[in-house]
Amino acid sequence: MTDFPGAPTTPSTGRLRVLAAMSGGVDSAVAAARAVEAGHEVTGVHLALAGNPQSFRTGARGCCTLEDSRDARRAADVIGIPFYVWDLAERFREDVIEDFVAEYAAGRTPNPCLRCNEKIKFAALLDKAIALGFDAVCTGHYARIVDLPDGTRELHRAVDGAKDQSYVLGVLDADQLAHSLFPLGDTTKDVIREEADRRGLAVAKKPDSHDICFITDGDTQGFLAERLGTATGDILDTDGTKLGEHDGAYGFTIGQRKGLRLGRPAADGKPRYVLDISPVDNTVTVGPASGLDVHALTAIRPRWCGAPATGEGRYTAQLRAHGEEVPVTAVLTDDQLHVRLDTPARGIAPGQAVVLYDGTRVVGSATIASTERAVEAHGV
């Protein structure tokens, strides 16, 4: 029997009852196959996250369509494991979609994939799995779990840095890590596709999912407008001068450059960027790129992948899903994380997550509540 790094084992046989979350893509299919090969008793499950799956994006761009469900079932048949579809559409609507809309309405920029991992895949799904007698949930995320001699576990970056998903898993706590399997963390994507082809899995060449699965046409602004309505407001420069109008402040994100529809160019001819979004007075402030330089931030609702950070410490931080790590000093006070960056970073918005790392180890994650800039925008 072969095994993979980070697989929890029972003292007697090492055989686990594993629930494999199968999205219909190549990664989750290979992860399930590897769990079977490791000797575990595996059951596949596809999460139905839409009340009407046909209203979700078709083709290979999402992970929640009828096509994806059928791909997952075919993969389970090839692997030779039982397969079920679980309806979590209502929970997904409440915890992910409604949260997404509310965050934009409040002038923040949420990460729905991170919220889905926290509230759906490693809360609702894991809770149900444990209640049914499963020992662990297996997913196709690219991350590694390291078992320590004292029985505790650590979450680490994947070997394939280009595919690493530890940022969106930084919300997992120690109890959730204890019941998680990430069989792909030590493998590159190219190898996974080759392995899927050898195993006879039809999803071997299926394109990766991307974008937001519940926005059918990829038009985030249109999706929000349908739910929040339109509300004309002003676009201002940093001294408060009106430059144009918009249909709703929720349609903008910090650092945005395109789609500003300004009536006149900047005096220096350089591009303008969104520096601030104020839902209270429905204004959007724009200015030069230098106005995006963030040198410190405060984050709330910290979640720790093990022992909580205490006092002041030196770490690296990732501030966006595909962003680079930056050296930081972090201090935890009164359940708030205060982070000072060694070098300013741009495009950091409230609502996003800051994830702290110690080398490749994920220390924890928190939600950015406010930022401090070298050049403050009007009204910040």
From TrEMBL:
Q: Note the CDD domains from the entry.
A: MnmA_TRMU-like
Enzyme Commission code(s) on record: 2.8.1.13
- A Pfam match is tRNA_Me_trans
What coarse category fits the chief subcellular location reported for this protein?
A: cytoplasm
Q: Where is the tRNA-specific 2-thiouridylase MnmA-like central domain?
A: 222-287
Q: Where in the cell is it found?
A: Cytoplasm
The positions annotated as site (Interaction with tRNA) read 141, 352
UniProt region (Interaction with tRNA), positions on chain: 163-165
Annotated tRNA-specific 2-thiouridylase MnmA-like C-terminal domain residues: 295-368
Q: Which reaction does it catalyse?
A: S-sulfanyl-L-cysteinyl-[protein] + uridine(34) in tRNA + AH2 + ATP = 2-thiouridine(34) in tRNA + L-cysteinyl-[protein] + A + AMP + diphosphate + H(+)
Q: Which UniProt keywords apply?
A: ATP-binding, Cytoplasm, Disulfide bond, Nucleotide-binding, RNA-binding, Transferase, tRNA processing, tRNA-binding
What are its GO cellular component terms?
cytoplasm
Taxonomically, which superkingdom? Answer: Bacteria
- Residues annotated as binding ATP are 21-28, 47, 140
Catalytic residues, chain numbering? 116, 213
Disulfide pairings: 116-213
For this chain, one GO molecular function annotation is: tRNA-uridine 2-sulfurtransferase activity
Biological process per Gene Ontology, one example term? tRNA wobble position uridine thiolation
Q: Which family would the database say this protein is a member of? A: Belongs to the MnmA/TRMU family.
- Family matches, as NCBIfam families: PRK00143.1, trmU
Query: What role does this protein play?
Result: Catalyzes the 2-thiolation of uridine at the wobble position (U34) of tRNA, leading to the formation of s(2)U34.
- Report what the protein is called: tRNA-specific 2-thiouridylase MnmA
Q: Which organism is it from?
A: Kitasatospora griseola (Streptomyces griseolosporeus)
Q: What is the lineage of its organism?
A: Bacteria, Bacillati, Actinomycetota, Actinomycetes, Kitasatosporales
Gene transcribed to yield this protein: mnmA
